[in-house]
Structure prediction request, 416 residues.
Amino acid sequence: MTIPKKIPELLAPAGDMEALRCAIHFGADAVYLAGTRFGMRSAPKNFSLDELREAVEFAHSRGVRVYLTTNTLPRNNELRDLEEYLPKAADCGIDAFIATDLGVLRMLRELTPQTEVHISTQAGVTNYASANVLYEMGAKRIIPAREISLSEIEEIRRKIPSDMDIECFIHGAICVSFSGRCLLSNYMTNRDSNRGDCAQPCRWTYNLVEERRPGEFYPIGEDEDGSYILNARDMCMIRHIPELVKAGVSSFKIEGRAKSNYYVSVVVNAYRCAIDAYLRNPSPDYVPEQWILDEVYKISHREYCTGFFFGHPKDNAEIFYDQIYRRYYETCAEVLSYDGTYLHMRQRNKFCVGDEIEFLERGKKPVTFKVPELITEEGESVESVPHPMMLFKIPTETAIEPGSIVRRATDTFRLE
Prediction:
């Protein structure tokens, strides 16, 4: 069986309607989101049925697909509600459900046969035999376990039906547990990590305590803030698009339904630019331009790695001993319009006259700009815009597209 030649789909997270709009504006081919129940992220706002219908209409009007996560591991007392929910969700026009549980898969094929089913990474698919069984049960796509390599994915691709898709996480946070199945949160906080309510205790700081010396804490690593012994690095595969395509990955998935709209916008834009540049010249040696590579460092992130795609991490460890997040840029405003003289904007974080800012337009290299003047809606010239959601304008001869991001480097900025 030959590997089908498909243009890879760029799949983005949408924790709420604004994040969905950002993902679509910056170039996502598809978005994945959750309803108010049965999804693996309870922290984001998520979507009621009315909001889901609105999201689907908005996405479809722009040629973008919508996948709904129903990938929790439901208990007996939830099944009746789930049976009632699934047809209502399907009626909103979604393109696919994402499921983990085999009972839910069967339920979906019986109750919503017109809607595709994608098998979540939580199902832990590590081989073509499992993928083929899932296909026979009605699954259209698998999201394999994150612990397998690209060579294993390539073999799965060769040995499953050509019309079955493979979707892989290519950027974002990685759970320390196998394919995201974890009991640590349940044990420590009684919040079920397998039903969307993980407290993320793997991200907490831990120290050693000797049995007969209570209250005396000993750090495991050399860090004044403690040691993050369970903390996984973030995934970043932006340098490896040719290898992902060669392996037969159909959909490039960005993690982050609980992340900010800024995160979604920047990461989607970076991968959109990288994928499009690769497709214009599909060389096995393709590496994105430096400005595209730099973009993934302009968001809040942990140290990056390539996970298990190229074999066991070993020295490129999943575990690291550093601060949890690094953040070197912050969003300042969004562009609303340009009238030929002024850029009209909405404030997100305070900035001042004389600050050096960047405009990030979709599909383009960022433009650096020094703020010459800030003018309120009432026409008053001010030294800063300090109020959240404040409307203002900046004089400029440079036209910037509505929906573009305005950001600036923080005092701790550095590229790695």
